[in-house]
Amino acid sequence: MPEASERKHLATAINHLGKLVSFDTTSRNSNLQLIEWVAETLKPTGAILRLTYDDSRQKANLVASFGPATAGGIALSGHVDTVPVDGQQWSTDPFALQEQDGRLYGRGAVDMKGFLACALSVLSDCNSGAFSKPLHLALSYDEEVGCFGVPLLIDGMIADGLKPGMMIVGEPTEMGIADRHRGYLGFRARFHGQAAHSSDPNKGINAIGAAARLATEVLRRQSSGEYREAGTTFNVGIISGGTNTNIIPSSCDVHWEMRPGVMTDFEECRLSARELVNGVRGSTTCEQDELIGIPPLRPFDENPAIALALSAGGHLLPEGVPFGTEAGYFRNAGIATVVCGPGSILQAHKPDEWIAIDQIEKGIRFIQQISKRQQS
Predict the structure, then answer these.
(1) How many whole angstroms separate alpha carbon 128 and alpha carbon 66?
(2) What are the Cα distances from residue 34, in Å, to 18, 239, 342?
(3) Cα(99)–Cα(92) distance, rounded to whole angstroms?
(4) Which residues of the chain, if any, have pLDDT below 50?
(5) Cβ distance 297 to 325 under 8 Å?
(6) CA 274 to CA 284: how far, in whole Å?
(7) pLDDT on residue 4
(8) d(CA 342, CA 364)
(9) Judging by beta carbons within 10 Å of its beta carbon (0-12, 13-18, 19+), is residue 165 exposed, middle or buried?
(10) Residue % of the chain over a pLDDT of 90
């Protein structure tokens, strides 16, 4: 594209990113101000805008559809919520975009408002009537806390007859193309024992003891190497229980996770988690709740989205990515899906989060190529 046009799109993307960062869309907050601003930005293009809300109607998904209102075509997907800044030491205001040394700093700059800014810089300059094939921009809520918005988004697209043929999830991969990643299962095991005076521990049932056995076994599985070939990992994140050192603790919670390997059976992992708790609870009782269940992204035998992303300027990542995304939900809906977007995941979730300006430039060119394809 001509240099002047390139500068224009980059300037527009940076301006859009500044606006997007200014909305504090930490997952605990409403995202409606951001969603409504995006809708207003795209309204002049003639795109059809569809919103689906959570039960509180304080959060919404947005699908902006260009071209024919039919199934097939391509969708660009991203989440608009961010992780908190609580407890992080930032050098600048995390909700005011700062540019320094070729980088753009702000909460969500790379994860993943940078991708959305790239998409808006291209699509806000388009006319929906110019598209001969469908192109969608699909934005979801609550990805960071469990991917709670995307199932509703997918159901809405299918119900409206807009199921895409291909999906690109724009998480930060430095424009690498991933067709696989692990899943995620997050649990809270709540052990109940019996309180007693610590002068006679045998009169009580120690809930922390059961929790400790669970934590020990989870960490043993991670360190043993028996799950390494499958690519499955384990972690204990929180243990909370007891009231005082002279009281046998009657309750204790353990928050732990399992990240199943790409080809590991998800339901077998759930069964294994139940059996694990039953095996360590001893005389306590225990309820284990699945707090988060994010399916893995498994490769298709033939995935046309890989060729699409390659043609638009991406490069293949044969091993996939180590982090979870919403891509597994799209894949499970029968949509050919890859993960590919600007910026590095290494900068996400940190204080002074940033995305490189040259990654914004690459993201713009990538989306331009996809947009041109759908207009040809």
Answers:
(1) 5
(2) 12, 36, 20
(3) 11
(4) 1
(5) yes
(6) 15
(7) 77
(8) 9
(9) middle
(10) 96
Q: Which of 24, 111, 142, 143 is catalytic?
A: 143
Q: H-type helices in the chain, by residue range? A: 3-22, 32-42, 114-123, 150-159, 207-224, 266-280, 304-311, 327-332, 357-375
C-beta of residue 137 within 8 angstroms of C-beta of residue 48: no
- What angle do helix axes 207-224 and 266-280 make, rounded to 10 degrees? 140
Residue 139 corresponds to which amino acid? L
Q: What's the gap between Cα 288 and its chain centre?
A: 24
Q: Which amino acid is at 210?
A: A
Q: Which residue has the tokens 């995006």?
A: 38
The rounded distance, in Å, linking the Cα atoms of 26 and 61 is 15
**C-alpha span between 238 and 182 (Å, rounded):** 22
Sheet architecture: strand order including 354-356? 98-100, 103-105, 354-356
81 is catalytic: yes
**Of 24, 81, 171, 352, which is the active-site residue?**
81
What contacts 176, CB < 8 A, 6 or more positions away?
314, 315, 316, 317, 321, 340
CA nearest neighbour of 346 among 179, 229, 176: 176
> Is 229 tagged catalytic?
no
Nearest to 137 by CA among 59, 83, 82, 67: 67
Question: Is 316 strand, coil or helix?
Answer: strand
The number of residues making up the chain comes to: 376
For the entire predicted model, the pTM comes to 0.91
pLDDT given for residue 1 in this prediction: 44
